[in-house]
């Protein structure tokens, strides 16, 4: 995998089961790794649902294989560190291995209007 193509920084978030103050089970996300990745937008779509327009972006991320990330699955999330400290959060829809321990390809969806400020 060409390291020059890994031009983006992504944060991979692993789900963790927790209990809130009302003793309810909740899922929180903890930072599993910050890695360099290649980003390729696959498609975008607008959907009208309940008289609201929502735009969805499907993106593929390619990153180096790691034994720590090999067990990543669609319950994980990904944050792309954008410009000026803005992060875009993606829901992972698929993970597959590239070659034999060469890389991982992550397919993920993000709402086009969903951004969070980096703190």
Task: Describe the protein in words.
Helix content is 0%, strand content 67%. By secondary structure, it is mainly beta. It has a single domain, classed as Bacteriophage SPP1 head-tail adaptor protein (Thrombin, subunit H, Beta Barrel), CATH 2.40.10.270. The protein has a six-stranded antiparallel beta barrel with strand order 1-2-3-6-5-4. Strand 2 and strand 3 form a beta hairpin. It starts with 7 loop residues before the first strand and ends with a strand.
Question: What are the defining features of this structure?
Answer:
119 residues, mainly beta, Thrombin, subunit H, 6-stranded antiparallel barrel, 7 strands
Outline:
The chain has 119 residues and is mainly β. The chain has a single domain, classed as Thrombin, subunit H, CATH 2.40.10.
Q: Strand order within the widest sheet?
A: 1-2-3-6-5-4
Radius of gyration: 15 Å
> CATH homologous superfamily, by name?
Bacteriophage SPP1 head-tail adaptor protein
Per the principal axes of the C-alpha atoms, what is the gross shape? globular
Beta-strand residue percentage: over 45%
Number of strands: 7
Annotation field: number of helices = 0
What is the total number of structural domains? Answer: 1
